Amino acid sequence: MTRISIFLFIKLIVILSILNGCSNTSNSFSENNDPFETLNRNVFSFNKYLDKKIISPISSAYVKKVPSKVRRGISNHLEWMDTPSTIINSVLQTDLENTFLASAKFMLNGLTLGFYDLDEGDTKIKKRDFGSTLANLNFPEGPFLMVPFLGPKTTRDFTGTVVDKQNLVTLSSDSINDLSLAEIPINLVDKRGKMQKTIDNIYLSTDPYIKIRSYYLQNRRNDIYGKEYINNKNNNLDSEFEKLLD
Questions:
Q1: Which pTM value belongs to this model?
Q2: Could you write out the DSSP letters of every residue in 21-56?
Q3: Coil, strand, or helix at residue 92?
Q4: Separation of alpha carbons 43 and 158, rounded Å
Q5: Domain boundaries defined on the chain
Q6: Which SS3 state, helix, strand or coil, does residue 152 take?
Q7: How large a percentage of the chain has pLDDT more than 70?
Q8: Residue 145 has pLDDT above 90, yes or no
Q9: 106-123, pLDDT tens digit by residue?
Q10: What distance in Å separates the CA atoms of residue 152 and residue 147, rounded to the nearest whole number?
Q11: CA-CA distances (angstroms) from residue 32 to 46, 193, 213, 243?
Q12: What is the pLDDT of residues 18-50, one digit of tens each?
């Protein structure tokens, strides 16, 4: 094994050991797994305040002032910069097709630094991260977390985010790492602009915290499990309906 492979393997074992202690079930989906709700609500209020005072106004100006084609190019570049994470985790998940497609697209669009998608969206890639790799290995998602600045996560996904960032730092050059660090605020503004209506609707709900928790969990589980999650959710709904009839 190479030095990098050993580093990744050791880190994987440590993280999996930690997560394995959280729960013994991996595909029992519950939106009530929120033992830190009081703390999470405080963090949510903090994030919401920052969003309304700083991020949202900047994002709104970005959408209004920057032409859509330029914003599309920036989004393409940010997605391109994130592709190595998909490649690494596709390998870990033994998804050879996605590994090949992601690698080929990353190299092709490297000619434009990702600002222009040279295959014009013909290559469909499934986005992978270490959180989805842990799910693929049947480790539980753990309690829901509201992380300062980062927003909603589960224990598993937060761990995955940390590992993904560390992996990219380990595998990338200093210049790439500096560029990635500089693009964090741009990425934040870009994503906020794309989700403007969704986030604004969440803020207008009766309980924004519950709404964003539900929104995140349902979308994240659907991304990871697909039909398995939808079928499980429908079965649970049918079960609850049958209880009402008893």
A1: 0.77
A2: TT-S-SS---TT--TTHHHHHHHHHHHHHHIIIIIH
A3: helix
A4: 15
A5: 50-227
A6: strand
A7: 73
A8: yes
A9: 999 999 988 998 887 778
A10: 6
A11: 22, 30, 10, 19
A12: 555 444 444 556 667 899 999 999 999 999 999
Q: What is the pLDDT of residue 130?
A: 94
| 107's tokens | 């190299």
| Paired residues of 147 in beta bridges | 151
Distance CA 246, CA 243 (A): 5
d(CA 231, CA 24): 21
Rounded Cα–Cα distance for residues 191 and 97 (Å):
28
Q: How far apart are CA 130 and CA 166, in angstroms?
A: 11
Strands 144-147 and 151-154: antiparallel
Q: Which residues contact 90 (CB under 8 A, 6 or more apart)?
A: 96, 98, 99, 102, 126, 128
Query: Which helix H or strand E contains 144, and what residues bound it?
Result: strand 144-147
Query: Environment class of residue 21 by beta-carbon count within 10 Å: exposed (0-12), middle (13-18) or buried (19+)?
Result: exposed
For the beta carbon of residue 207, count every other beta carbon within 10 angstroms. Answer: 11
